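We were asked to recover a plausible sequence for a given structure. The inputs and outputs are reproduced exactly as logged, with field labels preserved.

PROBLEM: sequence recovery
POSITIONS: 227
GIVEN STRUCTURE:
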């Protein structure tokens, strides 16, 4: 018995239903166009990974903050990006950006469903001198090759060296910046490895939806690539 996808292909492809929709120009309407209850942008590409990024200042104060404008962008060498936008509550760049300009290293710590609440705590607007890992009660562990510490409870950590810091288009005074990093040391907890593979059910990665919504894993679908 063919599954739904295969039956649709045999029937001549998946035909879009006729739907009504809304459209807007973000430069004209902003991100809360008429009829929408809140800014929609963060709901448009979902679920997004969360880069839970630890950094350290030249004075040695550690910082930890979540960034859902984050992703892996290349494999060889392993390259990731995160994008601070807006400014620190006391003015100037956010601490993560200020820190990588002082000490050009960061650690990506994978956020799991179990770590959701503590991750959220680390998004608080705190004065720059405050160690956010200590503030949120996050146990830190030293990294192997970079100065910012790892989040001990994260099952995956990518220690990264900053390759480039790129100014992005910005409207108004709040700047958007992309920090590009190359992973130089990777840790995967044995707890999430089964038969030589990362096991999703053990990993329980957290995704960001829009608004204040997050997602754990739903159904996992396995599909080998053609040819
Ligand atoms: C799930 C989540 C994702 C976030 N993603 C971003 C992001 O991509 N870019 C950003 O500038 N702020 C983002 N924020 C807000 C920052 O985490 C917040 O401004 C934080 O205080 C920045 O900290 P810092 O000054 O310590 O770097 C996010 C917050 C949450 C809870």
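RECOVERED SEQUENCE:
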């Amino acid at each position: 018995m063919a599954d739904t996808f295969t039956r649709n292909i045999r029937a001549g492809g998946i035909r879009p239903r006729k739907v009504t929709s809304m459209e807007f120009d973000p430069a004209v309407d902003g991100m809360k166009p008429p009829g929408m209850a809140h800014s929609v942008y963060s709901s448009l590409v979902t679920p997004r990974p969360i880069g839970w990024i630890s950094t350290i200042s030249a004075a040695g104060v550690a910082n930890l903050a979540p960034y859902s404008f984050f992703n892996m962008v290349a494999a060889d060498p392993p390259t990731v990006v995160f994008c601070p936008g807006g400014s620190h509550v006391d003015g100037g760049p956010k601490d993560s950006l200020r820190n990588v300009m002082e000490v050009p290293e960061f650690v990506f710590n994978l956020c799991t469903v179990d770590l959701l609440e503590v991750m959220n705590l680390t998004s608080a607007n705190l004065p720059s001198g405050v160690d956010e890992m200590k503030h949120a009660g996050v146990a830190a562990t030293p990294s192997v090759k970079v100065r910012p510490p790892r989040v001990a409870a994260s099952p995956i950590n990518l220690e990264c060296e900053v390759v480039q810091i790129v100014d992005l288009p910005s409207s108004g005074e709040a700047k958007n910046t992309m920090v590009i990093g190359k992973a130089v040391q990777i840790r995967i907890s044995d707890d999430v490895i089964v038969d030589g593979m990362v096991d999703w059910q053990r990993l329980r990665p957290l995704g960001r939806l829009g608004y204040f919504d997050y997602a754990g894993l739903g159904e996992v679908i396995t599909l080998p690539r053609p040819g």
